[in-house]
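call fold(seq) -> tokens
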Amino acid sequence: MPQIKVKELFNVKTSDMSANESLIPKHGGYRKLKSFQVAQLVFDITVRFCDRYIERRSRSHDQTVQATRSGVQNIAEGSPASGTSKKTEIKFSNVARASLEELRLDCGDFLRQRGLPLWDHDDPRWQSLIDRRCATADEVAVRVREKHDRGLCGQSGQKGPPTPTYPELAASAALVLLAVACSLLDRRLAAQAEAFETEGGFIEGLYRVRSEKRSLRSSSTTD
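ret:
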């Protein structure tokens, strides 16, 4: 029995396929996005943090976990939607950014309400954690344990009682990585807005493709 090619089976012409490919740009691949990777890392850290330091049955536990989950999920949902709607992609990215900002507020409140210091951006521990480029929650936990064992606590990084530093270091680590995720999302939103402004959305692309086809038909008829 002769083999039937996929194009022949569905009666799709090569010219039609190339037109469709140009009409719908490449999209998806959100797992390769740095913003997604860092947001997912923050999600893993937040779940561990909440299970350890916040009452599991409390509303705060649920809301904090849901905020970081929303950040990850909306990045993932917006990426495939970009193929046919840049506007939808921007909307999902905005929701993701807002969710992560909510989480930043929660982590800051956790430190403030317990009288724990909030690290400044020029705190050496801030940049130290970023430079480590941790890829998993386990790697972040190792870094937190290192800081704890050295007896570092407070804004100045001076030696002090090691026991109280675990909640501070855990929440601060989440805040550092949240700042990275928010920065990446801000840049992504700016790029999405610029692309939408210069290239338009799916409807504009559809109009351009149809106009080009009409022009080709007109020119061939004239010839």
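DSSP finds nine helices and no strands in the chain.
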